[in-house]
Amino acid sequence: MRIGKIIKQEITHILPVFIFFLVFFTLINWIETYLFERVGMEKIKFIQVVLAAALIAKIVLVLDHTPWIDRFKKYPLAVPIAWKTFLYWIILFLVRLLIKFVPIYWYNSGEFTANFNRFFASINWNLFLSVQAYYLMLLFIFVTFKELVNKIGRKKVLELFFG
Fold first, then answer.
1. Contact 49, 29 (CB under 8 A)
2. Do 42 and 5 share a structural domain?
3. Domain check: are 42 and 85 in the same one?
4. What is the pTM of this model?
5. Residue 47's domain spans which residues?
6. Considering its fold, how many domains does the chain have in total?
7. Does residue 162 lie within any of the structural domains?
């Protein structure tokens, strides 16, 4: 019975994150698809959008179980929002770099330095950092609402937004 309760708690913790990012990543994907088709680039597939939303949900779930995530709990709301947004964003940045690096390292035998240099040369940094800026904005919005719900309660937030 305890395992079922833990699983339910984790699912209810991760589901809002997943749905939030799935919706907004789908919107971003539509915009990118329109822009990419105009310049002849390959569009992003929906499964990639789903995996990106799941990845961020997993990052949030894991970081929320660390002891230092609530380091600034007693400060005004702006401080924990900025702290959590920064942590989620930095971890997401590192994970995205790792996701791009592993295939290059895995499939290209050779020394680490050569693969590392090939990795940095292969990234379209303008696109990578543009997407990272979108993630920062979305993480900020998500964390702000999450902290508001934690501070004033789910029922009160629903009442404020929907009457």
1. yes
2. yes
3. no
4. 0.77
5. 1-54
6. 2
7. no
Residues 60-79, buried b or exposed e (16+ Cβ, 10 A)? beeebeeeebeebeeeeeee
- Please list, in sequence order, all residues whose beta carbon lies within 8 angstroms of the beta carbon of residue 123, skipping any fewer than 6 positions away: 100
Question: Of 54, 79, 99, which one is at a domain's C-terminal end?
Answer: 54
**What does each of the 163 residues of the chain score in pLDDT, given as a tens digit?**
688 888 888 888 888 888 888 888 888 878 777 766 666 666 677 887 888 888 888 888 888 889 888 889 889 999 999 999 999 999 989 888 887 776 666 666 656 666 677 777 777 788 788 888 988 999 999 999 999 998 899 899 888 888 7
Tokens matching residue 120: 């940095």
Looking at the structure, do residues 36 and 105 belong to the same domain, yes or no? no
